[in-house]
Each structure stands twice: as structure tokens, then as C-alpha cells.
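Title: Comparing notes on inverse folding

I've been comparing how different people in this forum approach sequence design from structure. To keep things fair, I'm posting one structure and asking everyone to reply with a full sequence. Here's the target:
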């Protein structure tokens, strides 16, 4: 299926704590504006009620800037795409209702998008460098704050989740480890930075034994916590003295768990085009090790540009384009879906 339809799509993302709007012309991004909510830092995690209030404040200015940067007015838009879920109900409602209002007022087709599929679809945005788009089938490791999935993208862009976490997500493992180290939320990017100054083999953790292509990160979180408790009991300055080694070791453990299973998925599926997606795909070690794995397994590797790793509306726009091409539109009774599992068998 070819993607470069000359449609102007306005896309909205509001699933968690980033308010984002993008304008796409076919598979080319004209603007992609993200407003991140700093308010949650002081609470050590996203506070749902505050997140929805911030979205409500930010959505209009963010859409306005996205249109201005694209050099378009609302009259020139052909369709409105929005994130239906998974995510926080209050946050999703803001984007969903905003998109519905626009669609109703302007008589535009409304397209509901699955956030996790959108992370994968970010690979099909045509970049200005003209880099080749991935070939299908594609095996994608999608790692975010709430999900960890191995996704098989088939020739028609339909997706099968062939592996998932049975408890915490990889991003949660980073964020929770950071929290016990006393680092602010979200801790993933900080662990990445601090890991550069530490020894990844200073501390080791057991590898979880989970069947098939599934993941588990709760055991790692517990081992990390117990290590800190034990060592701080012996030396109250332990965390401060060893923070770089601790960051490097936990990062190494998360990436090792992720890629062990993904390696197995490559072998089982026989797919030779592999990709990373989701917020954790911004992690420098994961990006490096994925490239190394691709070389070892003789696979073509696709790593998303940084601006399309964490939550953004451009990825919602490209996922919306596919739905538009397949004429999968939503009606005014479309509602947010908070859990990924609840998407199965349902359609906007
Ligand atoms: O996809 P995303 O922006 O939001 C969700 O859909 O959850 O992912 C956010 C997650 C957070 O857990 C954050 O700590 C993690 O991505 N993250 C990172 C890095 N950048 C973002 N984790 C490790 N290293 C990074 N550089
Ligand atoms: Zn996300």
C-alpha cells in the first residue's frame, strides 16, 4: 500500500501528559508541536486530574501554532485524527472532544487512532532527508511508559502483538528505578544521561524467566529496590557514591531483557526488517544495541528520529492517513478507550 496521498490531516495527541498537534500533507509532516506538562515533576509521576486540566488549557494554543507553522488555515484541512487510547481517561477525553467538535463544525471526517499503533507508524513518516521507509513485514519493539510490545506489522499495515509485558512496562522500570534513586519524573532520560558515567556491569540482576515472547519487569524493580535497601543499610551514602554505576547497571539490565526476547522474536518470525518505537526508543544504549543486533542477525534496522520517539501528534497523523486510505472513519459516538486490551475486537 502506498502512503503518499495528498491529504491535509490535522492530528491531536493527548493520551498522557503531552498535548500535541500536527499537520501532515500525506506522509510528510508540516508541523508537529508538543507541549509537555512540567507540573507533574513535583509529584514524582503523572497526576491524572492535573493532566486533563493542562490539556484543556493547552489544546487550543497548540493546534493554533501547528496550523500556523504549517502555513494552513482550518478551511484547508481534509480530516481530523486523534488518539482514542490507550491512556488516561481525562486526558483522552480532551483530545477526543476537541477533534469531534472540529469535525462537526467543519464537516470533516473524524479518525480515531490507537496510540500504540501510532508509535509504530511513526516509521512511515517521510523525513526531509528522504530516508527509505521500512519494508513490510516489519518486526517492531514498542517500548513506552505504559506498554512493552513486540509487534508484527503485516503488508497491509495491520498489526499483531506477538509479545507483551505481563506486569510493568520497560519505561516504568526506568521511571521507578529513577524514583528510588531520588531522581525527578520522568526518570528514563536522566538514567540514560547518568549511565554514560557509570559501569554497566557494577551490579547484576536476575533475568526474568517468562514464557514465549513475553516480558516481565517487576522482578527487576524489586531486585533493584532490595539492592538499594541492603547497601544503604551498610552505608547511608551508597546511592550518592554509586549513582552513575547504579544507572548504568539498571539501564544495561532493561536493555538486555528487551533485546533477548526481541532476538528470539526475530528467529521465530523470520522477519528481516526490524524497528524500535515508543518513548524508551530514545534510550541511547537501546538504540546502539538494536543496531548491533541487526548487524548480528543480518536485519535492516529502523530507529525513529528523536522527535518521533516520545509522544507526538505526527505519529497520530500518519496512523490516521492509513485509516483514511482504508476509509475507516469514526462517528460522533466514538469514545476514548483507556486500556490496550479493550481495543481488541472494537473499532472506533
Ligand atoms: O511513549 P512515551 O512518550 O509515553 C507513553 O506512551 O508512555 O514514553 C514515555 C516513557 C517514560 O517512561 C520515559 O521515562 C521513557 O519513555 N523514556 C526513556 C528515555 N526517554 C524517554 N527511557 C529511557 N531512556 C530515555 N532516553
Ligand atoms: Zn506513547
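Reply #1:
Here's my take.
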Amino acid at each position: 500500500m502506498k502512503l503518499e496521498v495528498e491529504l491535509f490531516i490535522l492530528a491531536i495527541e493527548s493520551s498522557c501528559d503531552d498535548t500535541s498537534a500536527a499537520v501532515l500533507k500525506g506522509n510528510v509532516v508540516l508541523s508537529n508541536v508538543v507541549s509537555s506538562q512540567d507540573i507533574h515533576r513535583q509529584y514524582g509521576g503523572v497526576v491524572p486530574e492535573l493532566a486533563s486540566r493542562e490539556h484543556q488549557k493547552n489544546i487550543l494554543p497548540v493546534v493554533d501554532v501547528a496550523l500556523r507553522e504549517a502555513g494552513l488555515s482550518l478551511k484547508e484541512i481534509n480530516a481530523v485524527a486523534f488518539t482514542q487510547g490507550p491512556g488516561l481517561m481525562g486526558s483522552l477525553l480532551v483530545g477526543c472532544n476537541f477533534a469531534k467538535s472540529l469535525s462537526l463544525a467543519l464537516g470533516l471526517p473524524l479518525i480515531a487512532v490507537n496510540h500504540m499503533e501510532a508509535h509504530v507508524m511513526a516509521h512511515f513518516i517521510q523525513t526531509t532527508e528522504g530516508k527509505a521507509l521500512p519494508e513490510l513485514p516489519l518486526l517492531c519493539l514498542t517500548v513506552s511508559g505504559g506498554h512493552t510490545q513486540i509487534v508484527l506489522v503485516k503488508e497491509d499495515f495491520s498489526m499483531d502483538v506477538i509479545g507483551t509485558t505481563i506486569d510493568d512496562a520497560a519505561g516504568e522500570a526506568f521511571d521507578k528505578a529513577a524514583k528510588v534513586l531520588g531522581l525527578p519524573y520522568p526518570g528514563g532520560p536522566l538514567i540514560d544521561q547518568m549511565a554514560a558515567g557509570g559501569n554497566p556491569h557494577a551490579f547484576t540482576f536476575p533475568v526474568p524467566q517468562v514464557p514465549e515472547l513475553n516480558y516481565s519487569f517487576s522482578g527487576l524493580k524489586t531486585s533493584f529496590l532490595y539492592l538499594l535497601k541492603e547497601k544503604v543499610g551498610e552505608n547511608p551514602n551508597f546511592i550518592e557514591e554509586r549513582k552513575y554505576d547504579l544507572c548504568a547497571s539498571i539501564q544495561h539490565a532493561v536493555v538486555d531483557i528487551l533485546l533477548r526476547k526481541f532476538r528470539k522474536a526475530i528467529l521465530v518470525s523470520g522477519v528481516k526488517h526490524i524497528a524500535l518505537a515508543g518513548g524508551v526508543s530514545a534510550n541511547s544504549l537501546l538504540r546502539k544495541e538494536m543496531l548491533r543486533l541487526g548487524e548480528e542477525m543480518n536485519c535492516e534496522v529502523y530507529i525513529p528520529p528523536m522527535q518521533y520517539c516520545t509522544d507526538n501528534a505526527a505519529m497520530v497523523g500518519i496512523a490516521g492517513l492509513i485509516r483514511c486510505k482504508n476509509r475507516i472513519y469514526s462517528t460522533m459516538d466514538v469514545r476514548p478507550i483507556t486500556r490496550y486490551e479493550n481495543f481488541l475486537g472494537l473499532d472506533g
